[in-house]
Design brief:
alpha/beta; three-stranded mixed beta sheet; two-stranded antiparallel sheet; single chain; 135 residues
């Protein structure tokens, strides 16, 4: 495509009202491409191939966003070690990014500030008031 990515499937507009498009997979993406850099929240997968673990961490951190991270591996210890090196609000090893009302959820960087859900989320929407009475 214009920035150098390769369209594997999808990419066409869908008929009807609104701005909808087919589920799309782009290959050969990387930092500096909108599909790689932005939180699309659409039916889009931007594939980037890492040379090794360090390169995977570099790629994962090469975005101004950090909502959730999903690492898939047969070695869960390695997956957790990698997840700890990536800046994100939530990290999942061998699971898709999800939320659960019992656990705090939120992003880092430009993906948000603070948390929602659970006790931490309730505190985000609570105004604490202090009373000080001197005699």
């Amino acid at each position: 495509m214009a920035a150098g990515a390769r369209l594997l499937t999808g990419g066409k507009s869908l008929p009807g009202e609104g701005f909808f498009f087919q589920p799309t997979v782009l290959a050969d993406t990387g930092p500096g491409m909108a599909a790689f850099d932005e939180e699309t929240f659409g039916p889009l997968t931007a594939l980037a191939v890492a040379r090794d673990d360090d390169d995977a961490v570099r790629l994962a951190n090469a975005t101004p966003f950090g909502l959730g991270l999903s690492i898939w591996t047969a070695d869960t210890t390695r997956g957790l070690e990698l997840a700890r090196r990536v800046t994100s609000g939530a990290a999942f090893v061998n699971a898709v990014v999800a939320s659960d009302p019992r656990l705090p959820f939120g992003g880092t960087k430009r993906s948000g500030y603070g948390r929602e859900l659970a006790t931490a989320g309730i505190r985000e929407f609570t105004n604490t008031r202090t009373y000080w009475v001197a005699r």
